[in-house]
């Protein structure tokens, strides 16, 4: 009789613990990305470096991969984009800004932001086409990730536009190798 009671108590304890952990997991809107975003999530948990976004390419601050930035934006009509943004303004007022990305190694990179923003990368006066993207509407760490294949070592101009707020958190990470 005693082993049955211990077994029943163990089963009950497991059910209680599983039930307590399940809502916390189910409430995390950031777990449904199709990619492994652990690196981005870890960076979004850090304290950001504050930067003022550029209004022109010449005034754009330099950003590098593997850091979290809080980029202070300005009204979109005050930004002199190198190339017109590919996305349309979604809100009025709309905020925007520029940053210069320096990378040490050419390859595929992800640009992640905490809010809905249009993200463009400019190289040699032309837009770099995104190779993939995804987002989670209820997640802010990150909210949206856009992947670009960046060739060459030149600085790339990042254009952020169409935002409803004057600050965006962002990070850039190298796209991890796919495991088959």
What can you tell me about this protein's structure?
The protein is of the alpha+beta class. It has helices at residues 2-26, 38-44, and strands at 49-52, 62-63, 68-72, 74-75, 95-101, 107-113, 118-123, 126-128, 130-135, 144-150, 156-163, 167-174. A six-stranded mixed sheet has the order 1-3-12-6-10-9, with helices on one face. Strands 2, 4, 5, 7, 8 and 11 form a six-stranded mixed sheet that branches. A hairpin with an 8-residue loop joins β9 and β10. The longest helix has 25 residues, at 2-26. The radius of gyration is 21 Å and the shape is globular.
Strand content: 35-45%
Order the strands across the largest sheet as they lie in space: 1-3-12-6-10-9
Task: Bin the helical content.
Answer: 10-25%
The CATH architecture name of the largest domain reads Sandwich
Keywords for this structure?
180 residues; alpha+beta; Jelly Rolls; six-stranded mixed β-sheet; 18% helix
What topology does this entry show?
Elements: H1 2-26, H2 38-44, E1 49-52, E2 62-63, E3 68-72, E4 74-75, E5 95-101, E6 107-113, E7 118-123, E8 126-128, E9 130-135, E10 144-150, E11 156-163, E12 167-174
Parallel strand pairs: 1-3, 2-5
Antiparallel strand pairs: 3-12, 4-5, 5-11, 6-10, 6-12, 7-8, 7-11, 9-10
Short description:
The chain is of the alpha+beta class.
